[in-house]
Amino acid sequence: MSIIHCFGAGLVGSYVARTLADRGHEVHVHDLDPYNGKIVGHPNITIHEGDALETDLSDFGQVDLVVNMLPGDIGHALTTDLAEERYPTVDLSFSEHTPDRYDEKARDWGGRILWDVGIAPGLSNMLLAEAYRVLGPLKRAEVRVGGNPTGPTGGWNYMAPFSPRDVIAEYTRPARVVRDGEEVTLPALSERHIIDVSERGEMEAFLTDGLRSVLNSIPAVDMSEYTVRWPGHIQRFIDERDAGSLDEEELLHAWWFNPKIPEFTWLEVVAADHDGNIMKWEVSDYGGDDGSSMARTTGLVTVGCIEAWLSDPGMLPPGVHAPESLSPRVVRGIVEMMKANRIEISGPEIGQ
User: Fold this and answer.
1) Residues 199 and 265 occupy one common structural domain
2) Number of domains present in the structure of the chain
3) Which residues make beta-bridge pairs with 222?
4) Collapsing DSSP states into helix, strand and coil, what is residue 138?
5) Other CB atoms closer than 10 Å to residue 258's CB: what's the count?
6) Would you call 322 helix, strand, or coil by DSSP?
7) Distance between CA atoms of 123 and 278, rounded to whole angstroms?
């Protein structure tokens, strides 16, 4: 049994904490409002209510691993501090300011951080790295991902499966992509197109800034990441934005996650080499009694990374590491654990 400190008790954070506790670890959860998640009363979870940035982990004695699941800028601030600590840190904060900028500082202090360990970025990075390992430099690499209601619901046809503020940030941040072998920046929400999603039919995809570390780690002529929504959702966002009538507080209320509405998470990763060979993976989940589909898919990638690191403390040296740096053996273990938890994954076997 390992002692793990989790920061953040939202939809994903509480799922990760419960899963780790159910798998026999001693889990400490830190959050300003930790009682929203389904962690109260769990025998292997200790709750600490308070400001994560004021928490001194040295007060707790043995700490085997830290998990940062705080949103946005708050999560980034915590990762900035953890870069100067020697605790192995798994970072799911998904801030605009990526922690790779602290690689040198982490190496100097002995800090070890594995970042962006969700479904996309996260698993998508790992699958692109597998495609590069097998195919070599890629001609085309595309990621499409979304967490949505299982059908149009009216209104926005959407509810946010993680922090609504982070979703808004995705819609406003320019998208970094690769075109003709060069990194370029395009407007967020551009390159809109209709796609066919398995079992769901026509949905709409548009550019968002989710490639992050693979922009530099995976050679490709063209590389893109698209977010997937029901048709009409993003046009309404654009119309209200352009009219100046978009109210962020109203969006936070309108997009709040309703666990009574059926929902699903879907990911597609496609990679093609210069000879026309293609590798394609598809991931989907419809949630369950243990959590929402986004909590399950994102959370299980996180748990897989945590347990791989705990089983092999030397897995990563001091520094800041992206998910595509993990070995095929580790990635295969993560995929197998997800499948064992009823996540549907199709595509080539990893590391074959």
Assistant:
1) yes
2) 2
3) 140
4) strand
5) 10
6) coil
7) 18
Q: Are residues 68 and 142 in the same domain?
A: no
Has residue 95 got a pLDDT over 90?
no
DSSP label at residue 3: E
pTM for this model (two decimals): 0.96
Dist. CA 226–CA 210, nearest whole Å? 8
- 185 and 129 together in one domain: yes
Question: CA geometry: angle at 248 spanning 159 and 157, to 5°?
Answer: 25
DSSP state of 110: T
Going by C-beta distance under 8 Å and a sequence separation of 6 or more, which residues neighbour residue 56?
none
Residue 307: pLDDT over 80: yes
Nearest to 80 by CA among 105, 51, 58, 50: 105
Both 171 and 192 in a single domain?
yes
Running DSSP on this structure, what letter comes out for residue 59?
G
Same domain, 64 and 156: no
Going by C-alpha positions, the residue among 28, 36, 38, 35 that lies closest to residue 7 is 28
Pairwise CA distance, residues 91 & 98, whole Å: 10
Residue 216: other Cβ atoms inside 10 A: 12
What is the spatial distance between Cα 139 and Cα 160, in angstroms, rounded to a whole number?
Answer: 33
The runs of H, that is alpha helices, within 113-258 are 123-135, 164-172, 214-217, 233-243, 248-254
pLDDT in tens, 193-241: 999 998 999 999 999 999 999 999 999 999 999 999 999 999 999 999 9
Smallest Cα–Cα separation from 97: which of 260, 281, 320? 320
Question: How does residue 352 score in pLDDT terms, banded at 50, 70 and 90?
Answer: low
Q: Are 186 and 177 in contact (CB under 8 A)?
A: yes
- Grouping H, G, I as helix, E, B as strand and the rest as coil, residue 38 is coil
Rounded CA separation 27/340 (Å): 22
Q: Which helix (H) or strand (E) holds 41?
A: none
- Assess whether 237 and 94 both reside in one domain: no
Above 90 in pLDDT, residue 167?
A: no
Position of tokens 């209709």? Answer: 194
